[in-house]
Specification:
The protein is mainly alpha-helical and 207 residues long. The protein contains 7 helices and 4 strands. Mean pLDDT is 79; it is low at 1-17 and 107-114.
Length: 207
């Protein structure tokens, strides 16, 4: 399946809400500082598509757009990058959330004619360790439209956020498995590791 390219003069049709990340969640998943996310929204570099009110909310496709903009801003002396307007980027990425479980098929394709950049893949920089936006861990998945596009244990509706909340309340791994007998210890370990990673992204000085 190929990423749908939408010309800049087209407007996406309204679709049911598939994700609504708040600023901390969007920043930690996209792999940029929260202050940068707010700044881009304030000056119009990238405005969240779900809600632009005081309680701003970003979509899954917003995360990919943010990663693309961040990539475009960095030096790439060995690549010839053609001009790509923000308008074209916005209306092309809006198709991503409709792909659902087909998101991994975006890999190994030329994304929006800006070069062979994989917007879904994990990456690391000083103080930031951004997760893969389809398979953040071997047994974890992010599926646009499922559980509001939150990371979850594969083939279940158990979010990593819920498992981390139970751990913070003092439940041991064994106690969590007793509540969710279909899970394995590896599921729980990977979920807690992912949530710890996302938390570190928000507080790099403490990492």
């Amino acid at each position: 399946m190929k990423l749908i390219r939408i010309e800049s003069d087209q407007r996406p049709e309204k679709r049911p809400l598939l994700a609504a990340y708040d600023a901390p969640r969007a920043a930690s998943l996209a792999g940029i500082p929260r202050s940068t996310l707010y700044y881009w929204a304030r000056v119009g570099i990238w405005v969240p598509t779900v809600s632009r009110s005081r309680q701003m909310r970003w979509s899954y496709s917003d995360l990919l757009a943010i990663r693309l903009i961040d990539w475009l801003r960095r030096d790439k002396p060995d690549l010839e990058i053609p001009h790509t307007s923000m308008g074209r980027i916005r209306y092309a990425l809006v198709a991503v959330e409709e792909l659902g479980e087909a998101v991994p098929a975006l890999r190994d394709q030329r994304m929006l004619d800006v070069g062979p950049v994989d917007l879904v893949a994990a990456f690391s920089r000083p103080d930031i360790e951004a997760p893969d936006l389809a398979e953040p861990r071997p047994t974890l998945r992010i599926v646009p439209g499922k559980l509001a596009s939150e990371p979850h244990v594969a083939h279940t509706r158990v979010s990593t956020r819920n498992l981390a909340a139970l751990s913070r309340r003092g439940l041991s791994g064994e106690a969590i498995l007793a509540l969710y007998p279909s899970l394995t210890s590896r599921n729980v370990e990977e979920a807690l590791a992912l949530e710890a990673q996302l938390e570190r992204n928000l507080h790099p000085a403490a990492a």
